[in-house]
Task: inverse folding
């Protein structure tokens, strides 16, 4: 079964820039996987940040951006703020019709 | 404003059944693909399955761990999505969310299902 890979944890300084990635255990991520990104804080439902690779969801600040970097999807946060400290999940839509979430990245801002 | 409200969660014994509902408002429900996503305590998000628009036809897709045990359905006249869960296992314990479309653009707040003896 195809696994979607994410960094388990990442750290960024306030005001800094961080790029989280979303890869495949086998193969490369492309726009045909419609990669999307979600932010989740403890006890809350996920919040959609980016969908279809690079489209920001309504109300999401433009310091969040999505792209394809090499063979992975990427979420870049520019000018990190304290309230960006959250878990971030990506999801890929497979050609078979199933969706697979990555294991999530715990982002620390310090 | 889009609202998705899940209900039907609770405590059930292993081997038991439960039906979850997701009531939608603020969207044209009949035009939306609908998903179920779950999150076990302290774990990440796991896609459970998806039903496309009624007019799209085609199969309902399920994740391997639930295929054959869970059934997704929808009632467009009631703007409601359902998840029938049978032969429940302890590892099905999770918060169950409904979410819209391929991109999961809108999410409900979730309903907790606990499978325990």
Result:
């Amino acid at each position: 079964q195809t696994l979607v890979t994410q960094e388990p944890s990442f750290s960024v300084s306030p005001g800094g820039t961080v790029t989280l990635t979303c890869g495949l255990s086998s193969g490369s991520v492309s726009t045909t996987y419609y990669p999307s990104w979600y932010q989740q804080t403890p006890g809350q439902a996920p919040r959609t940040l980016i969908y279809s690779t690079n489209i920001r969801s309504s109300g999401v600040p433009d310091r969040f951006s999505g792209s394809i970097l090499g063979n992975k999807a990427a979420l870049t946060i520019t000018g990190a703020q304290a309230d960006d400290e959250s878990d971030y999940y990506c999801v890929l839509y497979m050609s078979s019709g199933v969706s697979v979430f990555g294991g999530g990245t715990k982002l620390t801002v310090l | 404003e889009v609202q998705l409200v899940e209900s039907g969660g609770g405590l059930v014994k292993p081997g038991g059944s439960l039906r979850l509902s997701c009531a939608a408002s603020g969207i044209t429900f009949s035009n939306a693909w609908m998903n179920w996503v779950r999150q076990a305590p302290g774990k990440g998000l796991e896609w459970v399955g998806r039903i496309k628009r009624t007019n799209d036809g085609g199969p309902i897709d399920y994740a391997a761990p639930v295929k054959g045990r869970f059934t997704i359905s929808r009632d467009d006249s009631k703007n409601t999505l359902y998840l029938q869960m049978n032969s429940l296992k302890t590892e099905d314990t999770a918060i169950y969310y409904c979410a819209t479309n391929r991109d999961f653009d809108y999410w409900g707040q979730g309903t907790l299902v606990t499978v325990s003896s």
